[in-house]
Design goal:
alpha/beta, Hypothetical Protein Mth938, Chain: A, five-stranded mixed beta sheet, four-stranded antiparallel beta sheet, 11 strands, 35% strand
Length: 127
Amino acid sequence: MFEDERGPITRFEWGRFEIYGEVHSEDGEGVGKDVFVFGNRVLPWSARKGHRLTPEMVDCVLKEKIDVLVIGNGVNGAIKVTKKTRKAVRKAGIAELIIEATPDACATYNRLVLEGRQVALLAHGTC
């Protein structure tokens, strides 16, 4: 679904990410199928539940010093970002919010990292 040898995300397919040379998947590898990527860290995005993204589900990123938040809302775009969540992101001082299907979000995240931007990714690996 997505490949980019330049990284940091080198490959994504349904339920499986390769980030900084490590696999994270729905099969229990790494941090799992929902990821929070910031700097050189890959953490589980365990707060994400269901298909409506609430402000509580993005709290993990709101304290980080970033300019851009990229949300991968699933392979088929099943995750809906509520108005309250968008407002919480703006209130936290994050200048730009990008919401895309996860394969596109991986590409956007890589591009922004290579441009030297302060960016974080929250990505859902299925749906």
